[in-house]
Specification:
The protein is an alpha/beta fold and 595 residues long. The protein has 16 helices and 18 strands. It comes from Schizophyllum amplum.
Length: 595
Amino acid sequence: MSLLRPSVTAELQRLGIPEQPPPGAPLLPPVIPRGTHLIELPPLSPSTSSAQSTTNPARPTSTAQHEVPYFSSSSAAPAVSPVASSDSPGAEGDVLLLEHVPPINRLPVELLAEIFFHTLPSPDVFWSSAFTSSWYGNTFRFRRGPIASATSEAAAFVSVPTPPIPLGLPADMVVPSPMFLPSPMVLTAVCAYWRAVAIGTPMLWNRIIAGKLDAPCQLRWAELQVARSNDLPLVIRVRASSKEACVVARDACAEAHDAALFDGMLRVLLPHARRWREVVLDISNLTEASTSMRLFPALADFPETAALQLESAALLRYGGQQQGSCIEFWNWAMSSPNMRRVTLDSGYDFLLRPDEAPAAWDQIQAVNLWNRDVGLLELLNLLRACPRIEVLHVDCLAWTSALDSQIDVAVLPRAVAPHLHTLVLVNNMCMGFNFFRLLDAPQLRHLAVDEFCRQYPNLESRSRIWMAVQDMLASSAVRLTSFYCAHSWQNIFLDIIRLDALQDVEELSFVNAPFDDALAGMLVLDDETRFLPRLEDLTLGTCGCRSCGTFDDMVMSRVGTLKVLDIHHLTNSYNRRVLEAAKARGLTLYLQNTP
């Protein structure tokens, strides 16, 4: 009799996977005598002899009494006996009958390994998927968006309610959902059978994540993961310390300890640099004093670039630490023929001169300019040099030279970005509106703009950037699905909502600006006004509607279509019963600072 649902059985048959293990395959885990410890974690010391790692690098230093031999995912699982040896301690009580075997252990090894894989989080779950402006504390969260070539493959299965779009561009560290296991090491501590399946499945071990590199045992775990992943490409996320260097005062010994751990992690990973596919190295929490040592080896110590698999690289710093060696790292990384995504901070000006490295920039698809000032001419040149760019995050557009103040837009050619679908920009210069006047991005689908500049001479000047955004959207074939706007002018925002470019919008964020009756009235979905008919996710800053009925009408008219309503500050002008009724009909409601 089948133990699986008919739908699962049909899928197994379609894939050619047997519903039951083949004859001779184990149905029972091996017998474990009383007193044997199943949990076998690595030692708390990173010191392991080279002889041990050469002999059998996929195994920990200590060996359990009944450890199951290593096997590949394509080979049969090790044979086990349901009956204990008569001379084993407590053998009679440890005999496991067939009917007592957990149903999950009856599954084929391949299917059990696939289940194990989905218990582990994507690497990007440990990093905020939102774009965070490192200087101004602004966060842009696209809950829906492209899972395309500009994102990591592993980021496509993040299963959290209305997750932010995983764009593979790291920002703040976040804690993963409890629904995920923190590490594949947990699977090896359940029973010997699970340990054998886990160790024999390389795809469980090729994601090396150290979000808080503060214990020597993490180096040993990294060694195990590198060895057990066989030759699979490696996805690496390493943060040098869990402490904020710019906030928390730390003594010299602690900083030296953190820097030494980071150096030890690099020594583990660098011999396998040819296998790196995605790498994020965050040393932003280490101060200049703690990074006096050379964190990165000389360029000659890196492997040759011909065989590199590196597709995505990010090296994050708080200040100017390790400028020389970091430049050597980027010279090596940008020489990868597969490089597609880069995250650059303020120390890498040489990389923003694409004319000096046309071959490298021609293939780049995603650029995150993090914690840096980017000039207008610099940004326009970058777009022209990257014809394949799909994702661009600018933090932030600002004055970088006297040339920016002397720009004659009339003589500048337009910056055509035919593949750009996601643009996130923080503006901190009065002339920032010229960027949108010169931008031609017909495939733009996700747009976030934060007008942060406080240096405008008058109110008219302050509104020019939003008028430029409006003109860009109106004069092109753009059809947005996500639009984030901060510090906008409401009268211009009302005109933007009327544009055809926004009628496919599914996610709208209007923050750091008042949301009043006029805007609420426009968003009422009825026979007369049908703006944004596909809106599913609405985020508002201060909801200051004076008429309770207008806001309630807007909410109730979109019940069934609107799935998420997030309000940062809601005044007294609302009917709680209306919100409760909408919530009962499927609306997910987030209310902050609400009386």
